[in-house]
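With this grant's support, we have settled on a layout for protein records. One resulting record is reproduced below.
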Amino acid sequence: MIESDSGIMVTVAVIGGTGKEGGGLAVRWALNGYRVLIGSRDAQRAAARCEEWNQELGGDYLTGMANPDAAAAADIVVVSVPFDAQPEIVESIKAQAAGKIVVDLTVPLKPPHVRTVFLPEGGAAALNTQRILGPTARVVGAFHNVSAGKLKDPSAEIDCDVLVCSDDADAKVDVIQLVEAAGMRGVDAGPLANVVAAEALTPVLLHINKAYGIKTAGIRITGLPS
């Protein structure tokens, strides 16, 4: 059971959790002791998707609701949305995210050239999230380089490290615990400014997938103690 310092189960809201990556992480966290809320712009869609997942999992693991409601009820907010929708959705949860850890998974991709690195105005998606939410939000960039195909199977092993970037050292510790609960190893990759490199790796991995006929390229940091 994952608990806060007060002994209460930690609640994670996955904003955009009806998608592949957010949904895969949500299921893994729910099966490993977190209370998980699935946020969507359409509350009915979120509720219907959670009902499907709960039936598949054989229990009442996930709850669906509108994005602002999910963020308001959470201890940790995870943003898993397409890059073009990110500013609007982050703005919609600004009040509810104040003072909370906000984990941003967003990768700047510019279709149709999704295998070419694209640096957005502001440098990185997670840096823009920090600007939108303001200084009280404890923004962490993580999970950018994980295959959604692997995440969707909660029993699958994922041979991938997760780079975790933030200016808040305590927030990084909590997010690394989230990484481990999802079946991966979290690596402290420095301040939030370093998230530019993590986000930019995803188009590189997409190119590698195509070049070598695979779907699950990831990263592994060598030299770390086991």
Observations:
- The chain has nine helices and eight strands.
- The chain has a mean pLDDT of 94.
- The longest helix spans residues 195-212.
- Strands lie at 11-15, 35-40, 62-66, 76-79, 101-104, 138-141, 161-166, 185-188.
